Amino acid sequence: MDIRSQISMVFHLDKCIGCHTCSIACKNIWTDRKGAEYMWWNNVETKPGTGYPTKWEDQSIYKGGWEKSNGTISLRGAGKKKGLLNIFHNPNLPVIDDYYEPFTYKYLDLIESPAMDDQPTARPVSLITGKPIDIKMGPNWDDDLSGTPDYARKDPNLANLSPAEQEAMFQLERMAFYYLPRICNHCLNPACVASCPSGAIYKRGEDGVVLINQKVCRAWRMCVTACPYKKSYYNWHTGKSEKCILCYPRLESGHAPACMHSCVGRIRYLGVMLYDADQIEKMASADEKDLVDAQLSMILDPFDPEVIKAAKANGIADSTIKAAQYSPTYKFVKKWGLALPLHPEFRTLPMLFYVPPMLPVMATLGQKRKGQTEKMDPMAKSWNDDWLYDTTTEDLFGTIDEARFPLQYMANLFSAGDTEKVKKVMKKQMAVRVHRRDVTVGDLSKDKVSSILKGAGIDAEMANDIYNLTSLAKFDERFVIPAAHREQAIELMDFTGDTKGSTGFGFKETPGRGI
């Protein structure tokens, strides 16, 4: 076993309120300079929606991530041969309109305008050309537009839903949305690392953070194509590519990344997990339906004596192993099975996991005349005083199948289309709610509560642990940051000060081996 440590993250989507505080914290620290105006290393998207950049999930457009053929994986739109063919003309790169053209307003026109009969205006001007522009797109342009034909209805995750399921999502009384915050996933099998012709992108050995060496970067922009999450950006001013660095200077000093520290909803968790790097290529090459299980099988038990022994033999510090044992991300992902990766079918083995949102159950229209309870199609009759919404349910919390988003939609995001994996997570979350209802209100039969917990595969103790970490956890419980051992960093550097692994068009190891 080649045991390595990896900083991992969990985002609990039920708690995200879409305030964008995380985005602003990141922007103010890292990308508030010229050329980085449209770089949102941390952004929050409304789902359903097209995201940022537009339709980033549609790899038929952008050719990001890995694809499997003949039992092995290769980069979909980059790599040695494809990279050489497209190195001077890459048709798969997102263009500025897929993001938005950075702009400002000529505010001085308001201040210096002479007296006149008409109200002066501040015209928008491009920050790239300096010329007046008509604004067509901007950051968070589609916020909360959950039913619009221009955004929500063009969500790539709707592709394999039936027309009836899609239409049901956009009926006025069913309409719902949730927020999807995104940062770089710092993947175990990063396509950006494998695609870089200059070898400028590397994965740190001590914590797995993926970085771009600005001295080595030659702006080939293959990383922008290769990253299926579109979290590598090209700075038009400096001529370099840049990406989320997971605030590694903060991590090294024991502080949480800026986006996580500032999160209002406290949706973010950060910890370290141990994994077997020898399994990366094999697990990334698994059949699509097995990708989630394959990735989770690589994550090892930090309490296992054999794992601890192998980790120490590989140079992992005792403090890192201890941090892995207390890691909140390990609990969510491996111990409780509540968090899933975003688009595992991209085969990058992302280390940012999401707890899917428990959307409200669907209220139905019932007939109140003469005490009848017959259900009615809300589109079949005009609404009047003879009909009312029936928000009750025999099961108190409704059923998972009555959620406003079809399970297939959630599965397209978090389990490569496998609805059973999402349903399993939903059942656990629902069981925790039922259990806490029993603890605080006590209006449910013990047999029923016990049956629901058993059906979800958890017990009362685990339900309380999930509740405590989800709702009551303090800062140090949500962010378990391993101590930095920078005294060992010299081992990663050669005598010139450049990071080892800058190997031109070749790979140091086979694609997917990390560093």
Question: Keywords, please?
Answer:
4-stranded mixed beta sheet; Alpha-Beta Plaits; alpha+beta; globular; 515 residues
Give an overview of the whole structure.
The structure is a single chain. It is built from 19 helices and 17 strands. The chain is of the alpha+beta class and 515 residues long. Among the domains are: 265-359 and 399-484, Alpha-Beta Plaits, CATH 3.30.70; 362-396, no CATH class. The strands form 7 sheets. A 4-stranded mixed sheet has the order 12-1-14-13. A 3-stranded antiparallel sheet has the order 16-15-17, with no helix packed on it. Strands 2-7 form a two-stranded antiparallel sheet. Mean pLDDT is 86; it is low at 365-387 and 499-515.
Tell me the CATH topology of the domain at 265-359 and 399-484.
Alpha-Beta Plaits
CATH architecture title of the domain at 265-359 and 399-484: 2-Layer Sandwich
CATH class of the domain at 265-359 and 399-484: Alpha Beta
Structural class: alpha+beta
If helices are DSSP runs of H or I spanning 4 or more residues, what is the number of helices? Answer: 19
Oligomeric status? single chain
- Spatial sequence of strands, sheet with the most strands: 12-1-14-13
Strand content: 5-15%
Write down the overall mean pLDDT: 86
Rg (C-alpha, Å): 25 Å
**Percent in helix:** 25-40%
Q: Please tally the β strands and state the result.
A: 17
